[in-house]
Design goal:
Helix content is about 45%, strand content about 10%. The chain has five helices and four strands, in the order βαβαβααβα. It has helices at about 30-40, 65-75, 85-90, 100-120, 135-155; strands spanning about 10, 45-50, 80-85, 120-125. Helix 1 (about 30-40) packs parallel to helix 2 and helix 4 runs parallel beside helix 5. The protein is globular, with a radius of gyration of 16 Å. The N and C termini lie far apart (about 35 Å). About 25% of the residues are buried.
Length: about 160
């Protein structure tokens, strides 16, 4: 059976040194290198990682960064098909105080909007570890936030 590289993917950061104390993280210094390495290994899909820490440094979050991502995607025949929002593990909006919660939800909406500009159509929201839902109030706050994001997506389509 022949493997179609357009259907075989990997998570960004797997070809970079592991950051101490983390299972996965955005590889700030080596993310560009991972495109060529993944192409060489026969991968056609990538899952991008977004962290709360230094979110603004993630190329996804700037116009110039997205341009650079698109160039690497094109040059290496890699599609970024999805992202993992580790922001939810690190600082979930549904557990934060009101003002901080609104700021975190706005940042998530900015992530969603950036994804649409790149063509990323799958967003993984890990509800594990610190992001685990602990009670019905958190579940309701998560649901309300996702309803807001859903309304944004409907406007953008």
């Amino acid at each position: 059976m022949e493997i179609d590289p357009k259907r075989v993917g990997f998570m960004l950061g797997r070809f970079s040194p592991i950051e101490p104390g983390k299972i996965q993280s955005f590889p700030r210094d080596t993310w560009r290198d991972e495109f060529a390495i993944s192409k060489k290994c026969g991968f056609g899909l990538m899952e991008w990682v977004v962290e709360q820490d230094r979110l603004s440094d993630n190329p996804l979050m700037s116009e110039g960064g997205r341009r650079e991502m698109k160039k690497h995607m094109k040059d290496n025949a890699i599609v970024i098909a999805s992202i993992t929002c580790d922001t939810y593990i690190q600082e979930p909006f549904y557990k934060a105080e009101r003002q901080r919660s609104a700021q975190l939800l706005k940042e998530f909406m900015d992530i969603v909007e950036a994804c649409t500009e790149i063509g990323i159509n799958k967003i993984v929201v890990p509800l594990v570890d610190r992001g685990s839902l602990e009670d019905s109030q958190q579940e309701e706050r998560l649901r309300a936030g996702m309803d807001t994001v859903h309304q944004l997506l409907r406007i953008m389509v």
